[in-house]
Structures are given as structure tokens and as C-alpha cells.
Amino acid sequence: MVKVNNLEKLGLVLHVEVKRSGRRTYVNLPDTEVKACRISPGDLLQIQIRQIQRKAERDE
Hints:
- The protein has about 60 residues and is of the alpha+beta class.
- The protein has one helix and four strands.
- The relative contact order is 0.20.
């Protein structure tokens, strides 16, 4: 389990499971509806942004 800690300031820690298969990287996000997807570093950033948006919507 890899923790993406650069978002801790916002009160969000995204738990990510990373699995490599050849050149492809697959990611599981256990706390979300995203189970497994091919991913690039830019995609990971997009997922983090969506997580923040969802958290903000829940907290309203």
C-alpha cells in the first residue's frame, strides 16, 4: 500500500495500490469505486483532484 502524502495538508490521504505489468501500471484505489485501471502520473493527479472534490462535496 502506497500513501500519497502530499495532500495531507488538505486532510486527505489517498491510499493507492500499484501493480506493474510490463510497461503498464495498474492502480487500485481501495477507498473508492475505482478498482483497477491503467494509469499514468497525470492520471494519478486527476484522481487526486476528483478525490478532493468528492470530499469537499461530502463535507458541505
